[in-house]
Amino acid sequence: MSFADAIGLGREAIFVTLLVSAPVLILSMLVGLIVSVFQAVTQIQEPTLAFIPKILVSGLAILFFGPFMLAILTDFASRIFANIAHIPIK
Hints:
The chain is mostly helical.
């Protein structure tokens, strides 16, 4: 495996990680922003108020986007395992 192959594999792994985590992170960020605006408008300064909606939305996002995440991860893993045979041993 050359240096360029290793860099390409690392780049692809980071891209897959971002692609898999993006739906949950984006939805949690939006819910956190909405709760923060609600807290600012109503002047409720309870720090634990944002946790429950974010946890619920994160769980629902994982349930909803789970098949998408699993498909991307299994595709990446199958490509990695298929390419193991083609790596020259030095």
